[in-house]
Amino acid sequence: MNLPSLRHRVAPRRREKRTTKIEVKPVLFVALVAGVLMLCSAFAAEEAAPSQESAPALFNRGNALVREGKPGPAILAYERAQELAPRDPAIAVNLQAVRDTAGLAAPTPAWWQSAASALTMNEWAWSGSLALAFVCGAISLGRLLPTRLRQPVKALSAVCTVTVLISASALWLRWPELSRAVVLNSHVTALIAPAESAGPVFPLAEGEIVTAKKELRNFVLVCTADGRSGWVARAQIERVIPAPVPNRAG
Amino acid sequence: MNPPTAFQRLLLAGVCATSALAASAWSAPSQITAQLDRHSLPLGESAQLAVTVKDSQPVELNVPPVDGLEITPVGQQSSMQVINGAVLAEVRYVYQVTPNRSGNFTIPAIAVPGGGSTRPIAFRVDKTPNPGSSLPPAPSVRGQVEDAAPADAKGDSAFLRVMLPKQELTVGELIPVEIQACFPAGMAASLNGLPMLTGGAFALNKLDDNPEQTHEIINGQPYNVITWSSALSAVEAGDYPLNLELPVVVRVREKSKPGAGRSPFKDFFGDASPFDDSVADDFFDQVTEKPLALHSDGALLRIQPLPVQGRPPDFSGAVGKFDVSAEASVTRAMTGDPITLKMKITGQGNFDRVATNGLASSAGWKSYKPNARFEPADREGFAGTKTFEQAIVPTRAGPSEIPALSFSYFDPDTRSYVTKTTSPIPIEIVPGSAIASALVPSTTPAMARATDGLVPDHPETGRVSSLSPVVLAPWFLMTNALMAAATAIGLLVRRWRQLRANDTERVRAAAASAAVREAVSEMDESIKNRNSVGFFHAARRAVAERLAERWSVPASRVTLAEIQARLNGSGENICALFKRGDEVAYSHEEVTASELTQWRANISQQLAHL
C-alpha cells in the first residue's frame, strides 16, 4: 500500500507562505508615513515650544547684566546659554569670571559628567533617537535587503545600538540638571518651612546654583551643593530650564 | 502835576530796559582782530589793514607807529548783524599801510581800551613787483542778492564760493572742501539753512551747524565769511558742474515813498523839526526780510571712472592713500582659544568704502567676520584710522604665524591700484582644547576680553531653539517608545515563529492532522459520488496517517501486519477496515451508501479514539 508522503503535501504550503512574506510595500509605506509624521510633529513642536532662545543672545544678555551689576540674572543667562551651546568657551570664561567676582565656587563635575556635557541634551536625544530608528528599521526590514548589504547593516546596527546606550546614559546623567535653579537676588535666606513666618536656616548667595526639589504654593524646596535644604520664595530663584520637569521615575 | 499815564509808564520802562541793555553791552569785554589784506607787497603799493572790534561802541584806536610804514586811517564802519538769531555788533577801522622801504615789517599789537588786543601782523615788502603776492580775485560766484539790492550791501554782493584742492576726481574719491558764504560787511543777513548740493553727481558729508566765521578783505572790500569744512565725494563718472545752494534771508530797506506818510517827528515838532535830516528819514524807512538763495558758480569738475584693468580681487572701493598694519592680542595661545587680530588702516580717503574680510579660514585658522571701528582724525572724516577687529581661532599647535593681510585701494594721484600687505605675525600655539579652556579659564590668556574682563558680545544672533529639552516632549517620548515597542514585539513574534518551525514533533503532528483532515474530506466526497474504492482508500490513508504520527514512523510503514503486531488484538475495527478496503479494491464491489456512511462513522470514532 502506498500512502502519500507527508513532504509532498507540505511543500506547496511553504511556497504559499513565501509569497505572502514578500508583500512588504504597505509596510514600507506605513514606515515612511510614520517617519514623515514624526518629523512634522518634531518641527511643529519645536516651533510651538516655549522659551525660544539663542545662545549668542543669552550670552550677550549675560554680559549686559554683568555690566548692570546683576550677577544672579547674569549667571542664569550664561547657564542657559551653556545649555544651548556647551562647546562655546566664551560662555564658560564669562561664567567663571562672574562667579569669581561674586565669590561663588564653580561646580567641579566628574569626568563622566563633563563627557555627558559635551553635547546638549537635545543633541544626545536626537542622536539616540535616530540610532534607535535605524536599529528598529534594520531589525524590521533587514531581511528585505540584498544579501551583500546585510553584513554592513548589521555592523552599523551594532554601532547604533551602542549609540543608543551611550545617549541614554548621558541623558540619565544629566537629568538632575533639569532641576537646577539660580538664586536671582542677594540676601536670600532659606527657610525651615514654606511660610514667610518660618525661621531661617541658612543664607543663599546671589547667583548660587541650587536644585529645586519640590514646589509648594509660592515656595520651592531647594538643595544646595553641600546638601543643605530649605524653602525659598519662588520669585527669588529661577530654573535654568524653564519647562516643568517631571521626576526621573516618571 | 498830573500823574503819568499808562503810555508814559510804558515809555519809561522801555527806556530803563534799553539803558540796562546798553550798560550790559558796555560792560561786556570787546574782541579785537586785525587783518592785512596781503602778506607781501611790492614797494610802491599800499595794503589795507582792517581792525574789527566786536561787541563795542566806536572808540579811538591807537595804532603804534612802525618805522618805514605809513599807517593812515581811511574809514570807520559800524554794523549790526543777525546771523542764526545771534546779534553781532562790530566796528571796523580801516587803515592804509604804505611802506617807505623794502624789508620785513611787523605791525605791533593794537589794543582797545578796556578790552583785548590784536596779534602782531608780519609782512614783507619786495623791491620788485610780485604778481602772486596779492590775493587772487574772488571767483565771480554771486547770488541773487545782487538783484535784491539790499540796503545794507553798500553796493557789494554776497556770494557763495567753493574751495576745492583739485578739479579732477575719481569715482568714489573723497576730497576736503570748504564752502564759504561771503557777505559784505554791514549786510544784515541770516542763514536759512545749510549749503546743499543741487546735482546728483556728488555727495557731500554732513555739514557742521556751527560754521567758522571770519573777516576777510576780498578785492579790497571787507567781507564777513562763513566757512563750512566738509568732504565731497564723486558719485558718477563724467563732467559735471558743482552746484551748491545756500538759503539766506536778507534785510532790505525800502525808501519811504514821497507823500506816502510823514515822519512822526515832523508830526510832533512841525516842519522845524530838529530830526529833519536823512538819518531820521533812514530810521523811518521800511526794512523787510527777503528769502534768497546763494548759488555757487557751478565749476565744471571732471570725474574719471575707476579703471577696470588691474583691479585687485579684494578691492572694496577705497580711494585715497592708506597704510596698513596688523597686530595680535597675544603672542602665545592655545588651540581653540580665540585671538583678537587688529588690522588698522590709516590714511586719507573714503573710509566708508574701506573694508576687508580679514583673515580667511584655513587649515590652521578658523576666522570670524571682523568688526570695524572708525576714528576720524579731522572734523570732516577725510583722514583717520579704521580698525578691524577679528576673532581668529588656531586649530593646530606649534610655532606658527598669522598670515599676512592685504588691503587694496585706488590711488587717485598715480591713477593706479595699490595693494598693501602687512607682515606675518609670529605666534606660538600650544595644544589645548575648547572644553579644557572653557572649564579652566585661568589658563586661557589668549581669550579676547574687554576692559571689564568679559569676553565681548557675540556678533551673530545664532539659531533660536527651545531651552526645554526634547526628551521632555510627550510626542518624542511616545514616538521612540512606540518604535522600540513595535520592534520588540516583532522580534518576539519572529522568535516564536522560529521556535514553532524548529519543533519537528509539532510539525509532524500538524502535517498528520492536515493529512487526516484531507483524507476525511475525500471520504465524504466519495460517499457523495458512490465511489467505494476511493472511500476505502481515503479511509485507510486517514487511519495510517494518524497511526504513523502516534508511532513516529513514516505512514508508508503502517501496514496491516504492523497494526496487528502493535495493537496486539485491540485494533479489530482498524484491521476490518483494512480488510474490507482490500476486498472492495480487488473485487470492485459496489458498496451501498448506508454501509459507507456506517464505515464513515466508525472511522471517525476510531480516529477520535486514536
Describe the structure in your own words.
- The complex is a heterodimer of chains A (250) and B (610).
- By secondary structure, chain A is α+β, with helices and mostly antiparallel strands.
- Chain A has four domains: 43 residues; 52 residues, Tetratricopeptide repeat domain (Serine Threonine Protein Phosphatase 5, Tetratricopeptide repeat, Alpha Horseshoe); 55 residues; 56 residues, SH3 type barrels (Roll).
- In chain A, 54% of the residues lie in helices and 14% in strands.
- Chain A has a five-stranded antiparallel sheet with strand order 7-6-5-2-8. A two-stranded antiparallel ribbon of chain A has the order 3-4.
- In chain A, α3 packs antiparallel against α4, α4 runs antiparallel to α5 and α7 packs antiparallel against α8.
- Chain A is elongated and about 70 Å long.
- The termini of chain A are far apart.
- The N terminus and C terminus of chain A are likely disordered.
- By secondary structure, chain B is an alpha+beta fold.
- Chain B has four domains: 100 residues, Immunoglobulin-like; 158 residues; 136 residues, Sandwich (Immunoglobulin-like), CATH 2.60.40; 106 residues.
- In chain B, 26% of the residues lie in helices and 34% in strands.
- In chain B, strands 8, 10, 13, 14 and 15 form a five-stranded antiparallel sheet that branches. In chain B, strands 20, 22, 23, 24 and 25 form a five-stranded antiparallel sheet that branches.
- In chain B, α7 runs antiparallel to α8 and α8 runs parallel beside α11.
